[in-house]
Design goal:
about 550 residues, alpha/beta
């Protein structure tokens, strides 16, 4: 496939709050007071833009590119996967966030933007063209750059013909993030969410901790135990936010609990939702209600803090510094995408959020504001490991060691684990070690899910080279389950090769993998896992 992105675009089209413009090519592309620069940087292209008075919303850059009828294309997600990642043929209206990779009878093609960009970037592919959209809005309205030149994104493109397609994908993604950070050791251990679902206590956390520790045989890399949602003082069935200055009556002494957990031989982590807070802060700090879809409106909206305000970031940094002072080794921050944009990733598509609302600071793009929030969290966490959940993927890369790459699995319904967990691991493990440590979510060890199915999910995650966290109830776990989890912990506690899905071109729930040089086939419908000595390279 011929590289196309170094050719002149056939069209650059800009949307502003006032009007829309086709830009004309000169020394740069311009129309009205809007300007766009495409600047070559070695093998890449840097895209910058500005406007003096117009409120910029989006820029669309379209290149001519003839594609094969046989092409199969995979895109990424804005934040987490929702069981919907898959290779598909050409769907012109399909919005593919951040990057796409494609396979056809004549070779492979990939295009994307580097992480840490200042715009929400997505791709659309037709038989005759490829279009990059740079969404530079501020909330749901145009950004007021006032002549500031915004370095929106850097585009990377790669083509190949003969190498392994999985290897090609890994090589390409490695070019998108220049500063990934990873845990010092493979992450494994416990998080009781998928049997407790937030209704826990310090005593129950200690029971979980003792069980998780007893099942871990690796003496040099000890397991993690995370305290999830449910510890905070304002926790109830209808509210999952702060303040984050102390625990509720079930968690009366969090520094003391942390010390007790560590005495059992685990590393400790704790959950926080940084933007939802019931504290008495100024009304000017609140994000507007109008960003939510009507069906998701509720009484909580008044308490969401606006991360474009410097004092809000200082408030959040103080919360995280307080938690760090309690002695925890990791912080898991959650909900920032939903709390900022008012939508889950599966409902964003190309719209991202509702129109007609903006942040307090209207001079920065939404992505610049989100990056500012993640950098503040990273700074306040200091030496703590940061695990991002419901975080924007391309913004979290390089700022968190671990990223939850899919929506929740389940301790209640096997079908949800199959849909969310298997799909996520198959299609986003390619990012592992290149963007962050890619967490496909927990294994919920409960009586509600047949063990002959869940055991396969446990085995796949344990041998995938990615984090393994289990929710195992000390009260209901069987001897067989404990033995299987102990074996999985042993595998997951050491470095392994990245799981390679072999049938990912043809299904959204791949069942064939190359795991550490061994072929494995899973039956997600109910039969046992099968193994063979098949070790040849499969493209």
């Amino acid at each position: 496939m011929k590289s196309w992105f170094k050719n002149e675009p056939k069209r650059i089209y800009v949307q502003t709050s006032e009007s829309n413009y086709d830009l004309e090519k000169g020394d740069h592309w311009s129309g009205s007071d809007c300007k766009v620069w495409l600047t070559p940087e070695k093998e890449d292209i840097k895209i910058s833009l500005t406007a003096e008075k117009s409120k910029l919303m989006r820029a669309y850059i379209t290149w001519d590119m003839a594609t094969q009828a046989s092409i199969r294309i995979l895109g990424d997600h804005w934040e987490r996967g929702y069981g919907d990642l898959e290779f598909r043929g050409i769907v012109p209206e399909r919005v593919m966030p951040w990057y796409f990779i494609a396979e056809s009878e004549v070779g492979y093609l990939a295009a994307g933007v580097k992480t840490g960009c200042n715009a929400f970037c997505s791709w659309q592919v037709t038989r005759d063209s490829i279009t990059l959209c740079l969404d530079v809005r501020n909330g749901g309205m145009g950004v007021e750059l006032g002549g500031r030149i915004l370095e929106a994104a850097t585009v990377v493109c790669q083509a190949a013909q003969s190498e392994s397609f999985f290897g090609f994908t890994r090589q390409f993604l490695g070019q998108l993030c220049s500063n990934p950070i990873m845990p010092n050791e493979p992450m494994y251990g416990g998080n009781n969410w998928y049997y407790a679902y937030g209704w826990s206590s310090a005593n129950e956390i200690m029971e979980d901790t003792r069980l998780v520790s007893s099942l871990a045989s690796n003496t040099s890399n000890r397991p993690w135990m995370f305290i999830d949602d449910g510890w905070q003082i304002c926790h109830n069935a209808n509210f999952t936010g702060g303040p984050w200055h102390e625990g509720n009556y079930k968690f009366p002494d969090l520094p003391g609990l942390n010390n007790k957990m560590k005495s059992e031989g685990v590393k400790t982590g704790i959950w926080i939702r940084p933007l939802l807070n019931f504290s008495d802060f100024p009304v000017e700090w609140r994000l507007p209600q109008s960003r939510f879809l009507a069906k998701e409106l509720g009484g909580e909206y008044k308490t969401f803090m606006d991360p474009s305000i410097p004092d809000v970031l200082e408030w959040i940094k103080t919360d995280i510094a307080r938690i760090r002072s309690w002695g925890f080794d990791a912080i898991k921050h959650d909900y920032t995408t939903y709390d900022i944009l008012g939508r889950w990733g599966f409902a964003m598509n190309g719209e991202m959020t509702n129109p007609d609302w903006h942040f307090a600071d209207r001079t920065r793009t939404t992505m610049e504001i989100i990056l500012g929030l993640y950098r503040a969290i990273r700074e306040a966490a200091d030496t703590m490991l940061v695990l991002g959940c419901n975080t924007i993927s391309h913004a979290a890369a390089g700022l968190c060691e671990v990223q939850r790459t899919g929506d929740d699995t389940s301790g209640r319904e096997w079908e949800r684990t199959r849909k969310m967990g298997v799909n996520t691991l198959a299609f986003r493990t390619v990012q592992h070690g290149l963007f962050y440590s890619a967490d496909a979510d927990c294994v919920g060890v409960t009586p509600a899910i047949p063990w002959h199915l869940n055991k396969q999910w446990l085995d796949l995650v344990a041998r995938s080279g990615t984090p393994l966290l289990v929710s195992i109830d000390p009260k209901t776990a069987t001897p067989e389950q404990k033995r299987d989890v102990a074996r999985a912990f042993e595998l997951a506690s050491v470095e392994q090769q990245i799981a390679q899905p072999l049938d990912w071109l043809h299904t959204s729930s791949p069942s064939e993998y190359m795991l550490n040089g061994e072929y494995a086939r899973f039956n997600w419908d109910g039969d046992n896992i099968t193994h063979s000595n098949r070790t040849e390279e499969i493209a």
